[in-house]
Amino acid sequence: KTCPKCGEKMKDHTLVGPIVLCPSSVKKYKQFMKSYKVQVLTLIGLTLSLPSLVGHLNKSPQRNKDNILQSLWTWIITTYPDIVNHYLFGSVCAMTTFFISCLYFSWKDLARHESKIQKDWWPSLYDMIVTGVPQMAIYCGLNYLFWVLKPIRIELPEEAPSIYEFCRDFMIMLIVGDYYIYFEHRTMHNFPILRDNIHSVHHVYKKVFSWAGGYVHPLEDLAAVLTQVACPVFFLKPHPFTFWVFVSFWTLCLVDEHSGHDVWWSPYKWLPFSVGGGGAPHDIHHYKPHTNFGFVFCVWDLLFFTFEDVTDWYPGKTDFEPWAGAPENLIPVEGILKKDM
Q1: Helix, strand, coil percent content, the chain, rounded in steps of 5
Q2: How far apart are CA 166 and CA 323, in angstroms?
Q3: Is 26 exposed, middle or buried (0-12, 13-18, 19+ CB in 10 A)?
């Protein structure tokens, strides 16, 4: 049977509850949601609503409703008071996490671990040194300079956050910050001047490894940091302990998604409905740059129709097997064209 409205076969239509949508209507909706203008409007709406949604959550002076984290928090602020009360201690947490997690994935690369996604290429020790040493030198140098030149101290609360407050604020920062970074990523790809002069530095690597995650233009590095701290600092004002855990976890996810490895603890492995990000989903982005812009989550890619599901195929794969439904003569390609970015 054919649809009397569009003339297409009824089996090609989409059923949403009691409503039957024509293929042309579905296509127009996808194009609308995928447009950059919708991204801008969503970002504006989210930013304007954040003060009323989360701005009031941590204004109460009585923050701690349980004692689960209190002993740990007391130990931290009494054992290392001159370190943790510096306003850049969160940066130290992120830098330390970056270094340790990169070493972990470097070991996997050097050991030729089976979790590698694109097994036709492995980074050498030289690749790791050339990429990693300059990054760590810059991060350590800048942190030291600001630590000495701007010794700003913050007053740490004596009470630890409750478990509820910790989990609530952690998830708010994770979700909202992840949307901001998704928008920043889409912006870098949307405008040729940003894509070709700034974001292209990061896309030098079509086959990524852990140290390549931080291989970005300084302006993009600054933009990524601002998108992640905008919600915590300006809107939510979380407990310092929550913020430190958040930046450490986000940095771990950043390294994971650029590791080139498919590890069991990646978010996409344990979050349902393909909403989680990780090494396998983001690996696709580096050879199909118009897809999978998300970081910790892929829910934004699903929402705005930029999602490419994880399959057994990618350019340069040696044991090439097309995904179900692919043409038999489909040939892998290597690299990407700039116009595809």
Answers
A1: 60, 5, 40
A2: 42
A3: middle
Q: Which two tokens stand for residue 199?
A: 């974001």
Q: Which two three-digit tokens encode residue 176?
A: 């909202």
pLDDT digits (tens, 9 = 90+) for 277-310: 888 888 888 878 888 898 899 999 998 988 888 8
The tokens of 85 are what? 């009360």
- Give the residue among 232, 207, 257 at the shortest CA–CA distance from 101: 257
What does the pLDDT look like over 54-105, one tens digit per residue?
A: 877 776 655 556 778 889 999 999 998 888 998 889 989 999 999 999 999 9
Q: pTM of the predicted model, to two decimals?
A: 0.83
How many Cα neighbours within 13 Å face the side chain of 32?
Answer: 6
Weakest mean pLDDT among 99-113, 166-180, 217-231, 300-314: 300-314
For tokens 């579905």, name the residue: 26
CB–CB of 30/142 below 8 Å?
Answer: no
Neighbour-count burial of 104, counting CB atoms closer than 10 A to its CB (0-12 exposed, 13-18 middle, 19+ buried): middle
Sequence-ordered list of residues with C-beta below 8 angstroms from that of 102, at least 6 positions apart, any chain: 132, 210, 211, 213, 255
Contacts of 155 (CB under 8 A, 6+ apart): 85
Tell me how far CA of residue 180 lies from CA of 102, 115, 174, 184, in angstroms: 24, 30, 10, 6
Q: Where does the pLDDT of residue 4 fall: very low under 50, low under 70, confident under 90, or very high at 90 and above? A: low
Q: How far apart are the first and last CA of the chain?
A: 41
